[in-house]
Amino acid sequence: MPSAPLDTRYQIETPEGIELPLRPAGLTSRVLAFAFDLGVRAVVMGVLLVPLAMLGNVGIGLGSLLLFLISWWYMVLFEVLNQGCSPGKQVMGLRVVHDDGTPIGWSASLIRNLLRFVDMLPFGYFLGAISCLQHPHFKRLGDLAAGTLVIYREQPLLRPQIPQATALRLPFALDLSEQRAILGFAERQGELSTERVHELASILATPLHVSPARAVEQLNGVARGLLGPT
Amino acid sequence: MRLSDASVVIRPRTAWEAMDLGVLMAREHRLLLMSSWALVTLPVFAALTALLWKYPSTAIFLFWWLKPAFDRLPLYILSKALFGETPSIKQAVRQWPRLLKGQLLASLTWRRLSLSRSFVMPVSQLEGLDGPARQKRLGVLQQRNAGAARWLTTIGVHLEIGLWFGCMTLFYLFIPQNLESDWDWQRLILATSSEGLWLEHLSNAFYAVILVFWEPIYVACGFSLYLNRRTVLEAWDLELVFRRLRQRLSNVVPLLLLMMGLSLLPFSPPAMAESSPSQKPLATQDASQSIKSLMEKPPFKNPETVTRYRFGEDKPPVKNKAHRDGKLPDWLKALLDNLNSNTFKHIAQGLEVLLWGLIVGALITLVWRYREWLRTFVSRRRLRKPQDLKVAPAQLFGLELGLETLPDDIASAAEHLWPTQPREALGLLYRGLLSRLLHDFNMPLKSADTEGQILERVNQLQQPQLLAFSDDLTRHWQNLAYGHRLPPPSVQQQLCSDWRTLFSRGSNP
Lengths: 230, 509
Description:
The complex is a heterodimer of chains A (230) and B (509).
Chain A: E1 10-13, E2 19-22, H1 27-53, H2 57-81, H3 87-92, E3 94-98, H4 106-114, H5 116-119, H6 126-134, H7 141-146, E4 148-152, H8 176-187, H9 194-203, H10 205-208, H11 215-227
Antiparallel strand pairs in A: 1-2, 3-4
Helix pairs in contact in A: 1-2, 2-4, 8-11
Chain B: H1 15-28, H2 30-51, H3 56-65, H4 67-82, H5 89-99, H6 104-108, H7 117-125, H8 131-141, H9 146-173, H10 177-180, H11 185-190, H12 194-234, H13 236-264, H14 284-295, H15 319-325, H16 330-340, H17 342-369, H18 371-377, H19 385-388, E1 395-396, E2 399-400, H20 410-417, H21 422-439, H22 451-460, H23 464-483, H24 489-502
Antiparallel strand pairs in B: 1-2
């Protein structure tokens, strides 16, 4: 058994000593984002190439210019100018950042997108997929070279509903994870079955000095108390 | 099952993150998963190949169809490893026949093509549910994450195909060139002779190898999706923390009571001035030695070896390209011919003119943008020009300053005016002074200047006589203009004679 349990989080420490947890994104969501981007590019190319094809040789020339622009600059421009999100990444809730969590710049984005052609070797992202599945933070070769990381964006949270109860204070101190767990218990009651809610609450019935039947209400009260006046 | 023994961090994740956790789990036990998978599947594959030597497509299809039966082994290993009881390869492979018992037929027939196969597999294998109970369980589980499980299978299919083709391409790239030239790739694919058979079996073998790598990951992703779903449904993470909290409290409460009892007893807290254990005094030499050795270590000194590529002497052979040029494909030739045609030439010239025009325009814009800078720092000739060009004001304080508006002999004109119109006379003198300053001394007067400012400028000319006269005249003019106080007649005469002595050079130039 490994000493530290496996987790998908990636902790970075800022110079101010603040721990930032990032969530690196793995193969599946990235494949879907790439497929979406590929589709967008195909549609754009299709729409633009049809009128260009009617222009004859000039059309061929302009079409090759367009092909160059779209295949080499689509990702780079979107990533640098749109906070690390190409349209596919936007749809999948992904984002590219530097290894230290700072926004991606021109050089890193260019390197990671130029090296796509190494990742594609010898066929259809063979190397990229293997590297992505083997690396602890799901980096493909381009990411390794550019020092970038694809992470899940933080999504805005909905304000959770907490059941009504009279606010209580516990006679002993709770640490952060325990406070979070009690709040989570109150917030997630809607998703859990009633039996499970009672089972969970009865774990804490003895230390709270209440009967197991009243433990749920007691815990909700503690959660209210932790939440403070709202 | 004891959650506290889990070797992964249990918390609710999004479906994608849950699959990422599966990839990490597969990575953690990669060697075990891959070798056990290879030990089980490769003999089956070999047997199938040998049996169906004439029908390679059937062999690979059967092998592919049997995947759910093989999948049970990685799932067993992962479920054991999750709670820290990782089996050895021998144990795992021995378990496999036993794992095949439950619901094998169903998983190999009507459930075979289910897209959420990996997600629901743990229900039948680990929970041992069957029939309506299983259906009910699936109904609950598949409310969420089932879409992600379907995506997982879809991506898996594409990935298998991609990796498979990648392996074949890799193989093709490694064939020596002299061998390759004898081969006609198409002929080999289309061939049904025994010559083509082994090639097909080879590509089948590539697929089997790909599965050794990918299939455990696929199973792990499905398993972690299942775990995540149950974590959300049953709040495993909360249970973990609650149990830990109970553990902590049951340890702490007696201790708390004890502490409270003890605190009733009188005891003295340690005083600040209490003698601390005497420290051994450090010798200066030792101290500096240890400081030096500390300063050599990482946080203070970070030696780094930098290795760079340098250009070698030998040039890469250029011959190869010329050799290739000899046999261009037809379509490329046609394209090049088209590019050389006249119609394109005109448009190309137009484009060229346009591009050059853009460059020239950009340069001009650049020069225009920095024209001040260029004037200041580059061109010396133009430096004085702006001052020369400055237009002399035609009026100051409402007084006309043009040469043509003044009489030729200002002093005599003033003397004439003194008895009748003293204000006009003094005004004439002052106007004359300003006009002289403006035109003879090239003084840069502006229409915004005040009398005082003009005097300051006169001061800068370093001509005491002129300064004294200007001072005098200005004072009297100000007295008259703003205070309506006429200068005495003696002063009137004095001013006129001073004017004559100052500007005796005569009339206007």
